[in-house]
Amino acid sequence: MMLVSACLAGCRCRYDGSSRPDHRLEELVAKGEALPVCPEQLGGLPTPRSPAQIVGGDGDDVLEGRARVLTEEGVDVTAAFLKGAEETLRIARLAGATRAILKERSPSCGSKVIYDGSFSGATRKGRGVTAALLERHGVRVWSEETFSAAPLGKAPENDLI
To answer: Can you give the residue range of the structural domain that contains 38?
Structure first.
């Protein structure tokens, strides 16, 4: 079993109320081989919502209390991102999920790249809060971009953090 970002499964849960469907991931969900999750909604944030980015580090830094997640208006939503990460981990454990394919560049789901906290569109290396927590607990995380280069259901082994 694997988790997938709900927006990649066609759910309109992104900050702007849109989705980023990937037909291959939608197919895995339809077959019952993957569960869609949206950590930001699981953390209690509404859809739509203000865009948020990690300021002062990456998801690992947020988990350690060294960085915060702020909206474009400067509202601190760190607690919601932490709660969403914990709820996503709880779902992974309940479902026996050992892999996840998550939305790259997201402050929750980014597996290798996130926005840099400037709201300018610039990115930096790093993981989102949920991706970092899942990896810490043995769930292997890939992005939809890496997964799209692999055969259906076979995430590439060489893309691990």
So the answer is: 2-50+78-113+126-159
Prediction pTM value:
0.92
Rounded Cα distance between 60 and 71, Å, is: 18
Q: Assess if residue 73 is contained within a domain.
A: no
> Tokens 């291959």 — which residue?
24
What CA–CA distance (Å, rounded) separates 151 from 99?
Answer: 15
Residue carrying the six token digits 């208006």: 73
The pLDDT tens digits of the residues spanning 92-149 come to 999 999 999 999 999 999 999 999 999 999 999 999 999 999 999 999 999 999 886 5
Instruction: Round to whole Å and give the CA distance between 125 and 69.
Output: 16
DSSP secondary structure letter of residue 25: H
For the beta carbon of residue 72, count every other beta carbon within 10 angstroms.
11
Name the residue type at position 115.
Y
